[in-house]
Design brief:
Blueprint lengths: L4 E5 L10 H15 L5 E6 L1 H4 L5 H9 L4 E4 L9 H7 L8 H22 L5 E5 L6 H9 L7 E5 L4 H7 L8 H16 L2 E4 L2 H11 L2 H4 L3 E3 L21 E4 L9 H14 L7 E5 L4 H9 L9 E5 L3 H9 L1 E5 L8 H8 L4 E4 L18 E3 L3 H11 L39 E6 L4 H11 L14 E5 L10 H8 L3 E3 L8 H9 L5 E6 L2 E3 L3 H11 L3 E11 L6 E5 L6 H4 L10 E4 L2 H4 L10 H11 L3 E12 L11 H14 L23 E4 L7 E4 L10 E4 L4 E4 L7 E6 L5 E10 L7 E8 L5 H8 L8 E3 L3 E3 L4 E7 L9 E7 L11 E10 L5
Parallel strand pairs: 1-2, 1-4, 2-3, 4-5, 5-6, 6-7, 8-9, 8-11, 9-10, 11-12, 12-13, 14-15, 14-17, 15-16, 19-22
Antiparallel strand pairs: 17-21, 18-22, 19-20, 19-21, 23-34, 24-27, 25-26, 26-34, 27-33, 28-32, 28-34, 29-30, 29-31, 29-33
């Protein structure tokens, strides 16, 4: 057989950093060499890894020369396709769905580039189970866009979903957690192969994710090679150590608190014990580490020691004279424990951890001591360890890599090409409420004729013209019929969603393209969606992502992403599937359109599809463009999210009513309430113009109480105070201003938003009447009369990128004077466009 080619997707790779996964992947390449290089080994890494240290490229090249080929993900900003260009902008909006999609799309494009560089597809692409990096690649394969001859594998390491289960009281709830949890599950649900190191760990993950049915026949056990560093001098453990060591990362699920509490209990029982207890480790949460330190009584601080920044040699020296304790609640393998066993160390493991309990490689009192997961149990195991010696080391014999055992690979569940004729489709155009809207929709639907078989009867187009707005014998109906389409006249001004669902179910053709007003199909999307539906009979709904257009410039501005099979996200967000989508006609019979949701009926329908496990495919392509005036349309409310969450609780039989919870919403309190800056939140204001000392008094001042920020106009100048905006993209700014004096000729005021990297001179040029600029948005000037108050509004959606410059501006009116000109910006409201979350 020819050499199989496997590409590992990773964000860490030894020797660039100490991560265990990077070390394991390095070991795969070395082990492959010892076997005679029977496989091609490739790695795909992000550019940030090479930027982690100056010598990174040279170090990787030297390490993997002759062992493996390292590929670098492309910079999306340098890619020519529109999808990449739009996602490149998501980097300015961390933790949004678009930001996560951009990461996964970058790996997808990196794999395609690596295949082109190799000149052939990979036989296997292996993703880690964490991070959600596989979403775009998985969806591309499901759609038949790429990797049709490639097996996509997922290796069980530790997903955030599993870790956060073990750390259930540690993390703030938030919508971004659901994005990651769902993306991780998506890989595990759709990967061709699941690779685990221990049967108990596989079983734990299968149960956690509820994937027993999907995983049947798709799981393999494979123990990886555990190899020492080249040139490492072997370190032999002492036979009767007195010290104890914790040397895992300081993170809650690793349970350093358990080690500390057991050490305290041990020392209370044995105050004369000569040894000490060391935490030779590292961590990034200073508050958590401070909490661990606070557990240690003053009298024991010389016995329970925190050691940070130890070198590899120092750590090995500590290990050699210590009993090694690994109290983790969860591990998928724990290379550290096996390495310590090879050194001959005594090892204490948490028997409740799936990787240590009922496994084939760890045997209690043979090569380790197991404890029951409690403080008392660990303290007792520590006492026992002092007079116990292991009779064997844990077996580290590696299994034959699965890529060398093609007979064990599962049979692909999806054909490489569609095996059946693509289904017929009815395009259903709906949401039209005026003749003007009809004209716009008619023009956007016309290009679809080229992708449809209308003459042969395979496909059809229906245009829903509500009787409350259109006459059956009107000009719109005649134009529809003349085009060879069908005019349908629902009751009233807009058809009840439940009746629309019944209408779809009664259609003759299997597939329905929902074409709401305000969307224009991307060329080729419909053909791709129909092919995907023909490939997979389990698919109930197919869509893509949506391009948004700047209403001021008519240029492509942003991408609205959708998550698809994302039940966690469906509880709080409507970003599941685009209203412009292809679905099977019988889907609304299983998940009805709910009229109680009002205009948000489709969003609720899509979320219920995700919550009930319907097959949803979101192809990594742009499916449609949305009209600019629809971009600010509200997609959800807390009432909608609360109702769906409550229904989910009732469906699983919870006695608690989840309507009592306030649903977690994206930052900014959703579309119903703005983020309001007032009082102390206005204190950080600074003057950016005019510069220097221009008066004996400060023209831009924060005043406590209700006055907020006073911006004094200066003769012959504009006075500008600046606040920093939030990390999120701002849709609209509303400033509440008041002229505090009755004795002036009025003050002119405005607000502006400039992108974070916009120079002050560029802002001044715009205020001077310069040409429109993409990176500066300026409101209309408003004159605020003596003692009067006003609202100044600015639409900033096309300009804002998050972390913007918010500018509060005043100037004197013609022939105005400075005296008694005190204009207060009492509060500033920032309204967010929730549609970009």
């Amino acid at each position: 057989m020819t050499k199989p080619a496997i590409c590992f997707v990773t964000n860490e790779l030894y020797p660039l950093g100490p991560g265990g996964i990077g070390r394991m992947l390095h070991n795969f390449a070395r082990h492959n060499e010892t076997l005679g290089s029977p496989a091609e080994i490739h790695f795909l890494v992000p550019p940030e890894l090479l930027a982690s240290r100056p010598d990174a490229p040279m170090l990787l090249a030297g390490t993997f020369d002759g062992l493996a080929q390292v590929h670098i993900c492309p910079d999306l900003a340098n890619r020519p396709d529109l999808m990449a260009q739009l996602l490149a902008r998501a980097g300015a909006h961390p933790w949004t769905l678009e930001w996560h999609l951009a990461e996964s799309y970058r790996y997808y494009q990196g794999l395609l580039a690596a295949e082109r560089r190799r000149g052939a597809p990979f036989d296997i692409v292996e993703f880690p189970d964490f991070g959600g990096w596989a979403v775009a690649s998985i969806e591309a394969k499901r759609a038949g866009l790429a990797f049709t001859q490639t097996l996509i594998a997922a290796r069980i390491h530790s997903t955030q979903g599993v870790i956060y289960r073990a750390e259930r009281f540690t993390h703030h709830p938030g919508h971004s957690l659901g994005i990651v949890f769902d993306a991780e599950r998506h890989l595990l649900a759709h990967a061709d192969l699941i690779v685990g190191h221990e049967r108990t760990v596989l079983a734990f993950n299968e149960d956690h994710y509820g994937l027993a049915g999907r995983w049947r026949g798709r799981c393999l056990l494979e123990f990886p090679p555990i190899l020492p560093d080249d040139g490492d001098a072997p370190v032999q453990a002492e036979r009767e150590p007195l010290d104890f060591i914790f040397s895992s990362r300081l993170q809650p699920f690793k349970r350093p608190d358990l080690f500390i509490r057991a050490a305290i209990l041990f020392l209370e029982r044995h105050p004369d014990h000569a040894g000490c207890f060391r935490l030779v480790s590292y961590g990034w949460d200073e508050a958590y580490i401070a909490g661990l330190r606070a557990l240690v009584p003053e009298t024991l601080k010389e016995k329970i020691l925190f050691v940070f920044g130890a070198s590899a040699a120092e750590r090995a020296s500590h290990l050699a004279r210590s009993v090694v304790v690994v109290p983790s609640d969860y591990e998928s393998l724990c290379l550290f424990a096996f390495e310590a066993s090879r050194m001959g160390c005594k090892i204490i493991l948490n028997g409740r951890c799936p990787a240590f309990g009922k496994t084939s490689r760890w045997q209690d009192e043979n090569n380790c001591l197991l404890f029951d997961g409690s403080v008392a149990g660990l303290a007792a195991a520590m006492e026992k360890a002092l007079c116990w010696a292991p009779s064997a080391t844990a077996s580290v014999a590696p299994d034959t890599p699965y890529w060398l055992r093609p007979a064990a690979w599962p049979v692909s569940r999806a054909p490489a090409v569609a095996q059946v004729k693509r289904p017929g489709v009815t395009v259903v155009c709906h949401g039209i409420r005026s003749p003007a809207e009809f004209e716009r929709l008619f023009d956007t639907v016309l290009p679809l004729d080229a992708e449809l078989d209308l003459a042969g009867g395979t496909d059809a187009v229906q245009v829903l013209l509500p009787r409350g707005h259109f006459a059956p014998d009107g000009p719109e109906a005649r134009r529809v019929e003349a085009q060879g389409w069908q005019a349908v006249f629902p009751s009233g001004k807009n058809e009840c969603p439940e009746m629309l669902g019944r209408r779809l179910a009664a259609l003759e053709r299997e597939a329905v393209l929902l074409h709401p007003f305000g969307f224009e199909a991307a060329p080729g999307f419909l053909a791709l969606a129909l092919d995907a539906m023909a490939r997979d009979a389990e698919l109930a709904l197919v869509c893509g992502h949506v391009e948004l257009v700047d209403p001021h410039t008519a240029r492509s501005d942003y991408l609205r992403a959708y998550a698809g099979e994302a039940p966690s996200m469906a509880l709080v967000s409507s970003r599941i599937a685009s209203p412009f989508c292809l679905l099977r006609r019988d889907l609304p019979t299983r998940v009805p359109f709910d009229p109680r949701a009002g205009d948000l009926w489709f969003e609720v329908f899509a979320r219920e599809c995700a919550l009930t496990g319907e097959g949803i495919l979101v192809m990594p392509v742009i499916a449609a463009t949305m009209d600019a005036f629809l971009a600010g349309r509200r997609e959800t409310t807390k009432k909608i999210s609360g109702g769906l969450t409550d229904a989910a609780g009732i469906a699983v039989g919870l006695p608690a009513r989840l309507l009592s919870l306030d649903p977690v919403q994206p930052p900014g309190d959703g579309p119903d309430r703005p983020l309001t800056l007032h009082g102390e939140q206005l204190r950080p204001v600074s003057r950016i113009h005019p510069q220097g000392r221009v008066r004996e008094w400060e023209p831009v001042q924060w005043h406590g109480g209700s006055r907020g920020i006073i911006v004094h106009p200066i003769a012959g100048e504009v006075t500008i105070g600046e606040l920093r905006g939030p990390h999120r993209r701002v849709g609209r700014i509303v400033a509440h201003v008041r002229n505090l004096s009755e004795h002036n000729g009025g003050v002119e005021a405005a607000v502006a938003l400039a992108r974070g990297n916009a120079a002050t001179q560029r802002i001044l040029a715009r205020l001077d009447g310069g040409e429109m600029a993409d990176d500066v948005a300026l409101s209309a000037w408003q004159t605020v009369g003596p003692g009067r108050q006003a609202l100044i509004e600015l639409s900033a959606y096309g300009t804002s990128r998050g972390n913007d410059r918010l500018l509060l501006i005043t100037r004197l009116p013609p022939r105005g004077e400075e005296s008694d000109c005190h204009l207060a910006f009492e509060r500033v409201e920032l309204w967010f466009n929730e549609n970009i979350l």
